[in-house]
Structure formats: C-alpha cells, structure tokens
Amino acid sequence: MKLDSLLKERFGDTDVGSEIYALAASIYPICRSITGDGVRKTLNHLREHIDLNVNEVRTGTRVFDWRVPREWNIRDAFIKNAAGEKVVDFNVCNLHVLNYSSPIHAKLSLAELKEHIFTLPEQPDLIPYRTSYYADRWGFCMAHDRLVELPEGLYEVFIDADLTDGYLSYGEYLHRGETREEFLLSAHVCHPALANDNCSGLALLTYLAKLLAGRKTHYSYRFLFAPGTIGAITWLARNEHLVGRIKHGLIISCVGDGGGPNYKRSRRGDAVIDRVMTHILQHAGPNSAVCDFVPYGYDERQYCSPGFNLPVGLFQRSRFGTFPEYHTSGDNLDFIKPEHLAESLRVVWAALNIVEGDCRPRGTKPKCEPQLGRRGLYSSLGGDKEAPANNMALLWVLNLADGVHSLLDMAERANLPFQVIADAARRLQEKELLEGLGMEPMQPIASHRRNQLAKAGHALSRAETAVGAKGQSIAKAGSSKRTPLAAAGS
Ligand code: ZN
Q: How far is the CA of 127 from the centre of ligand 1 (A)?
C-alpha cells in the first residue's frame, strides 16, 4: 500500500509529520531515566495512541551479566546562592540534574560545588546531558556561561530524589501478521528532555504502529520502547525463546533533524535489512550514507552481540555524536521539524514495504520479449519524465522474472527504486505477462479480526471500514498466490 493513500485514509488531510511532532513535544518535558515514573508516564502517553503492553521487571532480577537496577524517582532539585535565589532549577530544565543522581541536601562552598557540576566549555550556553547509572554520585549540569558568573559563597544544593527497589518498565506492542516471523522496531525511552534523541524515535514508531493497525501484513511487527542498554538486555533475557522469529530489525533514534539519512548495518552486514536500507538510502538523496557495524551506538549493540547476532541495524537522520546539539539542551523542540519526521517515516515505511512486497515472480512469456506496445505498456509519450525509468523497469522485470530473482534483486540490478520495479511488475501482472506477485501488501485486515485490532488502531475511521470490506476479498485472492520472499528464499 502506498504510504500517501494510507495516510490520507487514516489521517485525512492532517499532516502526519505534525502529528508525530506533537506527540514528541508532549513527551519532551518528562524527566525519564532508565527506571522510574518518567518512563511510565512516557509509556502512558504512547498508550493513548496504541495498545501498548507495559512490562515491569523487579529490581535485582538477573539479566545475563547484569541486574535490573533500582528505581530512580525525582521530585525537585535546585542550587540556591547565599541570597536564597535559585541559580539552577530542575523545574526549568530536567537536564540540570545528573540523571540517576543520588539525593543530596547540603551547603557547600563554590569550590566544593564545582566538583559536582558538569558544563560544556566549548558550547558555553548549552546544558549537557550526563548520567551516572552504575555509580553512586550526585551532580548538576549547567551552562558554562552561568557557572563562571557564580560568585564565591555558600550554596545550598538539594536533590529530592530516591533510589529504591522497584521495577524497570518497558513498553511492547505487537502487530500480528500472517506469520510469526517478526520485524523488530525499537526505540530507547530513557533520555530526559532531548527531542531528537529520542522523543522523535518514540513518536515515529508510535505512529508507524498506528499506521499498521488493521493492516494485513506478512510479518508480525514487534515495537519495543525500552530504556537503552539495560532495557534491551532485559527484553532479550526474558524473550530468548522468541529471537529466532526476528527476521529483520531496526533501531530508531534521532529521526527528527534534517541530516542524513544514515543507516548502520547489522553485525552480519549482509542481512536482508542491510540490503533493503542500503537500497532505500541509495535513492534518498546526496546526504544519505550507510556505514558498517561498530560495537558502539544504541541497542543494536545488544541485538547484534555474538550470542544473538540478529539482523538489526540502526536508522538515524544525523548520526549520533556528530551534531553539535547531541546530548545537550540544544536538542530541543526547535531542533526537530515535522517535515523531517515525515521524511523519516517514509524511509521506514519504504523498508516495510520492501520486506512485505518482495517476491520472486515469473514471466509467462520467457522466450524473447513479449510485445509491449501492443498491450499499451510502452510509454511513448514525449515529455513524460518518468517514461524512460518506467520502460526500463518493465524490461528489467521481464528479463529477471525467472522465479529466482526477487524484486529487490531487480531493483538493485536496474539501479531503480524498489517501488518503480514493483509498480512495473504489477502492470505486467495486470496484462498477464507475469505471475507470482499476489496482492499488494498492507491491505486492510479482514473484518473478523478487526474487532481485536480496533483498539490498537485507536478508533478506526468509518471511511476505513468501507475499505476493509473491499480489502477482505482482495486479501483472499492474493494470499494463495503470493510467494513471500522468506519462504522462497530459505
Ligand atoms: Zn543518547
């Protein structure tokens, strides 16, 4: 299904980029960490859109070489000068507190205080984001410009936080497809007020789940919203029996800025998702780039650890650590834009469309070229800019439709976008020159399953109900014919 028609059907004229932005903005002010109420509050926001399952794992639970840490909750924090004025206030920006800081209430000299202050001397007007998850420490973060202004004197520091035995929370949502084979989509939920890293990823995946709800898909789609590192480790430890189902995976972070797009390959380097993302980014403009796996970054580190070695890559706009706003108060709501979020959604949707729609069709007239002009397939209209690519796509599909080459193989060989090849294949199938495509992927689900999924779709529109009835018959006709790549390939 084309994203544009799906967006129209589901959201009417509302711009999906603005919708994603609004959700990112609503969760931006929440003070998250690896555990605690900030994560729960965030998951509850996402739950207003999708039927998210929130899991709670007890402090101390062993997860491979780690233990689930204590729960961190913070109510207030400030630094007051001798006159009793707040010079740093957690309520103004939650980056001001060293994330996961132990509580403190003390009076200190400026020199003593400075030992607990983090700044960015090279970006003196920005507040850094710092954490101290696995060492007992307290601290504040502030703009360097503000620190140098502080006069000598006695300062009152107060961090009203607690670290107690509790739970680690993560959210999970499963869109069930025709098979149990899964596409994993994961975003970290542990950063406080940082818009690109990773309110953008959380919001984008929530909307993607919303778009899929009520759609018939080949794969099941598992969405994970978990704290970085420890969340992925916890999920893997509790779901080791499921990981064999994961056929493709993407970690999503920093998808709201205008850079890239960038893709980091899985540890395997030649997984289907690596080919798919490389293909999409080749056609995504001059700033797009693909890089090899390195064991540093986001949760692909855990999914691609040697004991799992899953086909999971990382999708970003600007690469983490390369933009000046990264892990600072500069990564705010002005830094992300609806149009970039919408574009990022298009990239991820294109990946889903490829894994869903890829197949190995067969031409019905393999001996010499069939006569295309007679069938009205050759576009000979002068001035049609798309015509040469469309004509080439027809020729490539006819030439490679031998039941061995997949549509992605053809797109790579022809150096044409997958969708151009898929559209050409569909036109050929309509003229009975090709078989084995089946239905277009992402059609609405048949009505008997809709009730179960209606909640997930969050009030599916009346317009969609009409399409759903139509989709039922299309789905039946297509499902027997289609040869999914996963079945044909392995
Ligand atoms: Zn980060």
A: 14
Say how many Å lie between the CA of residue 191 and the centre of ligand 1.
7
Nearest to 289 by CA among 280, 297, 301: 280
Contact 192, 31 (CB under 8 A): yes
d(CA 52, CA 481): 34
Which residues does 58 contact at the CB level (< 8 Å), separation at least 6? 68, 165, 166, 167
Q: Averaged over 245-255, what is the pLDDT?
A: 98
* pTM of the entire predicted model: 0.89
pLDDT digits (tens, 9 = 90+) for 393-403: 999 999 999 99
C-alpha 23 – ligand 1 centre gap (Å) = 19
Token pair, residue 163, equals: 């670290």
Q: 302 C-alpha vs ligand 1 centroid, how far in Å?
A: 15
- Residues 6 or more apart in contact with residue 122 via CB below 8 angstroms: none
What the chain holds in terms of domains, given with CATH numbers, is 4-68+167-357 (3.40.630.10), 73-164 (3.50.30.90), 362-487 (no CATH)
DSSP result, 459-486: S--HHHHHHHHHHHHHHHHHHHH--BHH
pLDDT at residue 446, rounded to an integer: 58
In tens, the pLDDT along 131-183 reads 999 889 999 999 999 999 999 999 999 999 999 999 999 999 999 999 999 99
354, 418 Cβ separation under 8 angstroms: yes
CA of 280 to the centre of ligand 1 (A): 25
pLDDT in the model for residue 28: 98
139 alpha carbon – ligand 1 mean position (Å): 19
Residue 469 confidence class, pLDDT cut points 50, 70, 90: very low
